[in-house]
Amino acid sequence: MSFRLKAITREDHLAFVRARPSMSHMQVPSWGDVKPDWRAESLGWFDESDRLVGVGLILLRPLPKLKRYLAYLPEGPVIDWSAPDLERWLEPMLTYLKEQGAFSVKMGPPVVARRWSAEAVKAAIADPQAGRLRDVEATVHEPRAFDLADRLRRMGWQQTEPGGEDGFAVGQPRYVFQVPFAGRSLEEIQRGLNQQWRRNIKKAEKAGVKVIQGQYEDLPAFYDIYVETAERDRFIPRPLAYFQRMWTALRAENADRMRLYLAHHEGEVLAAATMLTVGEHVWYSYGASTSRKREVQPNNAIQWRMMSDAHALGASIYDFRGITDTLEESNHLLGLLRFKVGTGGEAVEYLGEWDFPLNKVLHKALDLYMSRR
């Protein structure tokens, strides 16, 4: 028998979030307020006893001139992904979304497939034969993830392949870098950093770099160097209004949901970053740094302050978010991967994003449009 699915209130959704150790920051009710181009809805799965047993934040994007929607559950839904009867969870969702006018459903099961230790990633970067992380032998395989992928395919779901030269697909990153905190003291985490990291933290301290928590009015200072970073690292920056909306929406739900950090040196902001928290999972979300005064190591200083604060908040994972899958020296994102590897954490591959075409013609048209962007 399938679960019953229906729209739920923000309050019920949030109560479910609070009762769990963690879930993605993209599956909390306030994330819908960050995305005004989408219509957000909280969905709940109910069992035979009418207990709320799963939730999903659905983002609905309308097709121009048609009352048809792309339905997107970024890093969700939050259901029992290990359940042998996954159809009980996913079929009512597809039925519900089809009734709402969805022509295609995209979701990102929050399920880990493989992990590579920092040592394995370092060895892969040094190996001239290793072109991509996905082709390198993993340190840990999660067999249930591959079983889940087979089941999704049998149900008609299609896996989105990591696209682009650097392994970043449209949507959420499939490859991320995480530092496990559970059961470790801050001293143990610091000992896990490589020598360069520890040296740079001391250097920043000696040079007088001060890391402070910023407020709403400090977002423009963050934004100025974020735009500089975008130019240097070749990505399109989001507008300042996006970060202002993020701050207002997420902090209205929980004061610790979003924090801003700024690294100052002699009255100048040299680096800034945003940090997101849901339960025991903390994400380094957006980072920015200027090319000036790099020798005082503001990036290591800001990350160490954020990691220390995350540990104080009771984090079990500090998540550096997306990494490149490409290991070639010519890749401009390889330096960022090396920086993250220096923390002694692990590279993590998630199951990726999956599509279910409810209307094959419209789904194919969307695919074609996305491939030409």
From TrEMBL:
Protein transport keyword on record: no
One GO-annotated biological process of the protein: regulation of cell shape
PANTHER family named in the record: LIPID II:GLYCINE GLYCYLTRANSFERASE (PTHR36174)
Coiled-coil stretches noted in the UniProt entry, renumbered to this chain: none
Keywords: Acyltransferase, Cell shape, Cell wall biogenesis/degradation, Peptidoglycan synthesis, Transferase
Repeat as UniProt keyword: no
Protein name per Swiss-Prot or TrEMBL: Peptidoglycan bridge formation protein FemAB
